[in-house]
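pls design
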């Protein structure tokens, strides 16, 4: 049973966000109005040139005959009792009424055509999505942690069309689609599922499943497919963090431990806990960001910057602001700073 479920998940397609469509009754009403408009135009064309038509019944064509001729012509019935006999009427039929007939038929069978072409359109959208997707972010697991990570990324300016969600639950992916995200239903420990999310072309990967063993397997598979991507993973138990790092994760967050430390800090100092909560919530209040050193800051001390510098990243070394080696700053350094968020975006001295 489990194997069959896995096979079903693997064969599930990529789900692109659905476009907003009008209600069916509104669509039918619009098509009906367009069809009546086409019919009215045809009646008008026939009536103004009624002398160029011949009615086998009485020889002349009146308004009712024009309506009758337009109806049977547009429906391709064509009884032949009313026919164009002048050159002008025949030219009008060729150049105007025939295109109107085609348009009328397209309107009538529009719903059927939409059903027949829906799969083609979806395949075209999917192929176009695959061809244009580059340097995106893959989020494995769209629970509380994955959703919060997505919201933080979007708060810093990342577009939703640059995020792909992978989750084994179809309902979760439907929820991600409703928020404008592309989703892949499947087991992220399998390489073909991750490749369906174009993970091999991703710039960063967030791993936030429900189980720690799943996170380890996903990290191993993701690192095998993409050697250069930045992988950040979340685990519940702190003892599993070293195993995740060995599996290829660049950074590991212990969710239960981090929550517990924040709780302890809030007990000891509620204000300090509030500040920490503000720092990790991007887009409001104070934000903790990483930015490069600008040319004007090269050679200066970390205390001489416009922002509040917490740490300096030099190569693979993370230096504290009070570390003598952190100053003077170098052009290749990156700064971890605290800045004031304005209008939903963090602003700092690098801008």
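designed seq:
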């Amino acid at each position: 049973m489990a194997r069959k479920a896995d096979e079903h998940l693997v064969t599930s397609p990529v789900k692109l966000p659905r476009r907003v469509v009008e209600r069916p009754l509104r669509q039918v009403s619009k098509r009906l109005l367009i069809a009546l408009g086409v019919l009215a135009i045809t009646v008008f064309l026939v009536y103004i040139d009624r002398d160029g038509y011949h009615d086998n019944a009485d020889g002349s064509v009146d308004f009712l005959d024009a309506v009758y001729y337009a109806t049977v012509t547009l429906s391709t019935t064509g009884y032949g009792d009313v026919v164009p006999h002048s050159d002008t009427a025949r030219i009008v039929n060729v150049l105007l009424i025939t295109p109107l007939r085609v348009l009328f038929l397209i309107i009538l069978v529009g719903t059927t055509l939409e059903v027949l072409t829906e799969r083609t359109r979806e395949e075209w959208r999917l192929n176009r999505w695959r061809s244009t997707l580059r340097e995106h972010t893959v989020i494995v697991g769209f629970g509380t942690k994955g959703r919060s990570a997505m919201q933080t990324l979007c708060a810093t300016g990342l577009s939703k069309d640059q995020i792909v969600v992978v989750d084994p639950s179809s309902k979760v992916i439907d929820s991600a689609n409703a928020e404008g995200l592309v989703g892949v239903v499947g087991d992220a420990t399998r390489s073909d599922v991750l490749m369906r999310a174009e993970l091999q072309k991703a710039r960063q990967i967030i791993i936030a499943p429900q189980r720690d063993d799943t996170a380890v397997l996903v990290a191993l598979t993701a690192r095998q497919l993409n050697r250069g991507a930045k992988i950040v993973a979340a685990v519940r138990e702190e003892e599993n963090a070293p195993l995740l790092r060995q599996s290829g994760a660049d950074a590991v967050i212990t969710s239960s431990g981090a929550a517990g430390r924040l709780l302890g800090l809030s007990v000891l100092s509620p204000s300090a806990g509030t500040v920490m909560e503000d720092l990790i919530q991007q887009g409001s209040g104070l934000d903790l960001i990483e930015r490069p050193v600008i040319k004007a800051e090269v050679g200066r001390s970390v205390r001489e910057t416009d922002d509040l510098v917490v740490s300096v990243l030099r190569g693979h070394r993370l230096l504290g602001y009070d570390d003598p080696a952190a100053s003077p700053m170098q052009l290749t350094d990156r700064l971890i700073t605290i800045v004031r968020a304005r209008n939903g975006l963090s602003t700092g001295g690098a801008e």
